[in-house]
Amino acid sequence: MNNHKDQPYKDDRAPKVQRTDRTAISRRHANHMNSLSTDVGSTVTGGNGYLLRNRAGWDVPVGREAALLLSEGVWPRETAILEACEQLGVLTVEQVARAFFNNPRSAYTQLRFLESRRFLARIQVDRSTIRLATATAYEPGLQFANGRHRRNPVYILDWNGYYLLTEQYGYRPRNWNPARAGVVTSRVGHSLGISELWSYLVASARATHELDLASDELCRNWG
Fold this sequence. Notes:
Layout (H helix, E strand, L loop, with lengths): L63 H6 L6 H13 L2 E2 H8 L3 H13 L3 E4 L3 H8 L19 E4 L1 H11 L18 H20 L16
Antiparallel strand pairs: 1-3, 2-3
């Protein structure tokens, strides 16, 4: 199937639809979540690096109406996370936890939820790149109950996240481009470093009650 068919730069936007009752969405092979990758030809991007709308092993619908139907449980905080991913390009679990939550485990749980409905996608970035960009020897707090260490995944905005922001909230994308959003280049470390600084500034403002999590000030001038 041609994944360029419904690119987000055509003026053929469908009328908005109303959110319906909670929709139960399943996904095949849930254990594949930990193996998602952005290598060319992987399950996240196609052979040309384009972010895939249809992916092997997934049965989550993608599109304007699907994004709205799947948006039960997406509240202002989650919307702010989607906007941050759009403008900054990449965010780690630690960065999301610092900016929006009180602990990494809550952030990880919510990011998995957003990923399962194709609002966000997880990309594969070398662990050493993440550590260098975030100036951490390891990712504290992200551990399993038995003490085994967990990676600090990197997320990008996925198709349903794009559709939800633009169709439901009238958001105008500043950075997201499906032709390059899922491709890991030499600039990913730089982008992660910017996101790291941003997360500390947001956390500081949030701690002093100077910033509304749902406001556009979260990412203004960082896109």
